[in-house]
Amino acid sequence: MLEQWRPYHQQVLANVESAITNPPEFSQSNKQREFILNQMPNGLVQDMLRNSAWDALKQSGISSNMHIETVSLLSTLYRLQALSIEATLSRLGDIFYTRESVRKEHLLETLYLMRNLLLELIAQEAFMIMHYQNAINDIDKLLAE
Q: How does pLDDT run across 15-39, given as a tens digit for each residue?
């Protein structure tokens, strides 16, 4: 899912950066909110990250046959997923529902906040993709033994 999200979030980031470069003027706050939301044509996320595979693995008993380093890595990754990506998505969502974000004098500040959080989100996605792939490789090696 992260591999699907990353290009979309990069496009949203490009939209926001373009809006920062050429910010529009609005006389009505509802137009500003609509403009901000339109920077994300498909919304912020289209699906939820899940822990079901990890939960099933822990309950199956298979994890007792895995290298402790792999179990520790997976545990850490799922915790990082919650503390980083999910938290950043939540902070991005919070921006859209504050009164300050729709005040015309705050448009650039709102766009800068969005840009910074999107940069963080994209970096988190890349980090998680790399580490999930490493964990998958470790599990594949274990299963081949």
A: 999 999 988 877 666 787 788 888 8
